[in-house]
# Entry
Amino acid sequence: MAKKKAEKKGKKPHKNKPTSKKYKMFTIDGDKVKRAPSCPRCGPGIFLMNNDKRQYCGKCHYTEFKTSQTTKATSQESPKTQATSTA
# Structure
């Protein structure tokens, strides 16, 4: 028996990559241009992702954790309130 030849499908169609969203990292206030925080390891031009609790660099995986004032205040007050309730 003769082997069947595999059908050639040709090249895959070109898919466009999603465009960069770096324009969202700049804000204009009057004559001044404000930039989003950049990565201290990678340098300017590589921006940090903002999350509720942290800032993250997708290139070098640098992470900064945010500390909120409300969590500090509640954690400091809770031992005092426990001490007064037990006394």
